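A brief tutorial aside. Many learners find it easier to grasp structure tokens once they have seen a single protein encoded end to end. The record that follows does exactly this for Aminophospholipid-transporting P-type ATPase. Read the sequence first, then the structure, and try to relate runs of similar tokens to stretches of the chain.
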Amino acid sequence: MAEGGRANADPKTDSFVVPLNPDGQVEEIPSRAVAFFPDEILPFEEKGVELNRTLTQEEKELAAAGYGQLEEQKALQAEKDSDVGHVDITEHAISLADLNDKLLTSVDVKDPGNSNGLTSDEAKKRLAQNGPNILTPPRKKSALRKYIDRLLTMFNILLILAGVLEYILLGVNFKENFQNTYLGGILIAVAFLNAFIDWYQVQKSEAILASFLAMIPPSCRVLRDATIQTIPAADLVTGDVVLLRVGDKTPADMVVFSATDLKVDNSSLTGESEPQERQALTNGSSSRPVEAENLVFNSTLVVNGEAWGVVVRTGDHTLIGQVAKLTSGEEGKEAPLAKEIARFVIQISCIAIIFAIVFLVVGLTTVYKGHPDLTVTFAVSVLVAFVPEGLPSVVTLLLSIAAKRMASQNVLVKDLQGVETLGILTMLATDKTGTLTRNQMTVTNMWSGLRMFSVFQSNNDDSETSQFSLDASGMSEMVDIAALNSRVKFDKTDIPFDKREILGDATETGLTRFAGKYLGSMYDEYQKKFPKNFEVPFNSTNKWALVIVEKPHKSGSLTSLIKGAPERVLAKCSTYLQDNVEVPITDEFKAAYDAAYNYMASRGHRVIACAQSLLDEEQYPADFTFSRSDANYPSEGYCFVGLVSLEDPPKHGVREAIGTLRLAGIKVMMVTGDHPKTAEAIARKINLILGDTRETLAAKTGRSIEEVYEDEVSAVVVHGDDIDNLQGWQWDQIFAKDEIVFARTSPKHKLEIVKRAQALGHVVGVTGDGADLGIAMNISGSDVSKEAAKMILLDDNFASTVQGVAEGRQIFVNLKRSIQYTISHSTPEVIPQLLYVIIPIPLPLSAILILVIGELYLTFILQLSFAWDKPETVDGLMRMAPRKPVNERTIASLKSRALRRTKTLRRDSETQNIIPPSKISKLYTKFTKPLRREYWEDAMEPTENENLVDLKLLSYSYLEAGLIETLGALVAYFVVFFKNGFSPSDLRRAQQATVYFIKGAPDFINGRGQTINDSQQINALGQAQSIVYLSIFIIQCFNVFAVKAKFSYPFGRRILGNAWNFAGIFGGACLGMFIVYTPPLHVVFGGSVHLSPLYWLIPVAFGCLLLVWTSIRVILLKKSIQSSRVKDIKGLMMFPTMRTMSMRSKH
């Protein structure tokens, strides 16, 4: 094989096709199903013929551009490295013996598990003296400051300014503008009321979320009264002995007195990007606290190994507590929904201001010249009509209601905006163990001495498989390795083995249960009989664990036992055990090994290899000093003992959940540390992989894997070893697949995968941090993952994610309906105002009545009722593509913009690192962006995204429903006036005179010669304004159901099934009748008790017309909506997930 991994070269074209295997060899690759190609070659398929073509420089740049921002983020992160300075922590400099005396605790350095720790009584006493182990929360905004922030939103500022303007008019001419007293006061009051409702709901939501989070406090394992206990981290006190393991968040500042390969992530404190090694130092450390190798800090993450530590600082006395700037975290990214709402608020406010100013000028220069008070009042009416004043409050209320409903379904959303973020997920990256599977490992099969044994009774094993027996070759050695090469702990040791709670990861727990089954009561004595001399614990880099025990044999007193990933363990072996004899490894053995491995892994089992080395007395005497730092321990020449498979069955409901998510257009991918074969087998059981990978297609068609190109398959299994070397176009090739599994990955790989997906525009949900929506398991998840996540599954049920996605999508629909419904009344409020200025006619609707319609009827009564809307159809929302889909076109658009942007970045001339722009540069770019052609090209580019406020919504609200409501209101207006003696021409003539329709007005003679006195004029105007007001309300009642019609007509049970809609309508009707037919209120609102209910039939007729138009609209848009539905996926298994022990994959 040539250097660089090239193979299959054509001397004429110098084209290469190179699939890689885990060891970098160009040969059959059973462990993965993705082939990558050299930079200059890209395979593609044309009319069924596989061709190779040269990848142009432009295509390379375009492929890489999409991931350019990742480099920028790394550069910015480098600038944020914190200088923690000198802090008041000295305990790390004290020797362990002195520290034990100082803290008055009981620590056994030689055997930490035998430490007594503190007594419960002493711990309670210290907790009372020093207080709980919690950090004083960062200073928050006061309630008053929060209220002021809510008050100073764009909508409220406009209302307050309009109210102040009315009072200015009152000062200019008090008598003629006396009614402005009410209008100005109501405008300002509404602004303050809006702010109060928004503020109150946010306060209430924060309290509710805080109470939910209090249900899942951080916990830790501590030794008290010589017993390992799990207690809330807040109850820790100085002197407590704590056990730390991988995935734990350090609960306090601790001095380590025993550690095995411990590494901690201090990046949140010190900015160090690499995990830091920590170890016990008998005589203490003279280094600064942040550099001390024997000190671990509160809130840092244990990423490797295990340790025992004694607590030296708690609460505000810890390092993080002393560094004040670290206690106030950075503000998170603004949620997509928040951005959309903010953009809509700005847009609608600008439109309202422009309209108000334009028609103010028109009024002052035409009909109402010399009457500034009338035109200003009109301008205020237009402003109020356009602005949906209560929208921010309604959004908060709707999200709060949804969050509470999700919590009742065991889905806790820590951020209100995160409720809707669930609805726009395009990709879900999930772990396997504990998330998709039950995290309950059970030993099922063993293979040793070229024979397969069944440990778990199964009807699916081959006839050649023997039942497990300790007397069989290699079986006693397998039990030894399972029992002795283990780091599990027990909650109690004074009870029978089968009743103990095992504290350890799922794999070691399964092996320990297996060993305990055959050793029984001898398990504890076995551990004491063969004590550990040296140990290298498992980590994500080595993928094996080694222990040297004092177990005598013919040639010495020490035995080395190793277990781990089969490919890693086999590489250390030169012989294998058969009939208790060490036999050299041959090709025949490797073939049998591959067959046994495939037999186990193809069932979705986790496969562990075991090996041993009987250490020679001459080379390794009993007092030999082993060392990890210089790898001074036996690392080769082992005897391969056998393979053991453990099954972790899928959780109930996982298969259907993944199928449902895929039918919703969400790409679900597995990111696991398991072997690719195991991962693929599990993926096939749970709907995650249905199609062929390159391997399976090659096997089906009788071709070699090298002859199968990526374009022929829809599934890919990527090995973690390849991830670090992938280039941009290779990532594109992976994410273009429908079914993706990443295997043998590390936590670092997982973060890289998520960031790469986000760079392509995906909204990613993933267990842990680093995503748009972090998801954590409450029961099995670590404290760190729960703290970082925005969503917690309280019952650890992955199927709850489906509920979350459905709820997220529904809340978006409900928000959209609410906005669509709210702004529909703008057109019937604005157009009559324009007629009042342009024709003119008597004012059809006063600003006060507009406020009543906009605020009391629609916002707080009817708008909120949409929060309880159910999906329009049974599976409508969960069969639609995400509202911001990611496909080839969107990725190409994103990359072209990124490429354009990367060309403008400044780089260091020597290092070529990106130089972050200054604040002034950012401001300049922000303000000059709209002046550039590219800005408008990007803005006008067609998109498949569905925004909260889009053209369809605006068209319906302003042009369709808005015009129908306008016609209904105006027809009723003119009919009422006509019945009171005013024809349209009479109205124009009377309004132009500007002296009618007020108390003391002269008599008006209409076109028919009838005389109408001032009281009749006022009564007619009151009836006309009342019917316009009621007409808008009545047609809007029909609109409540019309806005819901997208998939079906507005008459179905699901559309009419929300009882809160009818409650809102009833409440609004009562309020409307009260305002119109109560004489004392006429001073403020106008109105007339003489308005006949027969006039209500006019808006009712137009309401029916609106429903007819909505039905026609459903028919017209049906085709485009159907095209947005996700197509059926062939092969989905939507039957319940059953226990699949020993069920083989069909592939």
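Self-check: Residues 180-213 form the longest helix (34 residues). If you spotted this yourself, you are ready for the next section.
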